Amino acid sequence: MAGNKVRLRERVADIAALVGGTAMIAAGLAVFTIPNNIAPGGVSGLATAIAYATGWPVGMLTLVLNIPLWIAAWRMFGVKPLVRTMIATALLSLLIDGFTPVIFTYSNNVLLASVMGGACMGLGMGVLFLRGFNTGGTDLLMLLLRKRFAHIPMGKLLMMLDACVVLIAVLIFRDIEIALYSGVAIFCAGKVVDALMQGVDFAKVLLVITDDGEAVAQYLMRATGRGVTVLPARGAYTGEQKSMLMTAVRRGEVTQTLKAIKQADPRAFVILHNATEVHGEGFKENTL
Fold this sequence. Notes:
By secondary structure, the chain is an alpha+beta fold. Helix content is 63%, strand content 11%. It has helices at 2-33, 42-54, 58-77, 83-99, 110-130, 138-148, 154-173, 177-201, 213-224, 254-264, and strands spanning 203-210, 229-234, 241-250, 269-275. Strands 2-3-1-4 form a four-stranded antiparallel β-sheet, with helices on one face.
């Protein structure tokens, strides 16, 4: 019974993320980027440029442009890994064309439109990524190209694909400013995705150099409820044997942890690092 409830909650969360994420992306396109002829990279950006030249709906073009990618990916990876991508892409295409005639559009300031459009798209993509969805397009094309160009880093490959889309859009719109505003939209989308992904799993790693490692470790574990790893260390200048403690805490626990360290050893030397993800007990479950 408990297992059924968990599966039901997961399914509801998946549906909510799918609908909410695709709706946010579609709104960003329909409200901000499409009315201002901004091509925010990816298949949707290419569809925006083609729609300008042909008059066809952007959503329909997005779906049509994804079909060859689906076929290639199906032959390479099989159909099972593509199901969630196909559902998300189909829903996004439907929402883009559904929103376009009924939702308001913003065209007073193209720079602001590119910023807001990119932010909306990044928020929607982040929500989808957190639940294991993606909208195909250049993400899918990148996976296909990685098989052939494995030596090229994924970040560079994605940047090259987006640059090609923007270049095509500039040629179609015949306006160099399209590239500038599209670059702003792509940048904002990437930053919002990163912020959302890191904000969910964000943690701090603390390294504590102390003369009394065992005592400080025991005090920290009692005060914070977090595990502590004790590593041997030696001061290079003094040659004295010390201990280095390593622990990971969530963002809201940093102040409490620093106070505990100060109470246990006021002379301790503390280094804080950002950790975008922590897998294990008390943090994100390792499902790999």
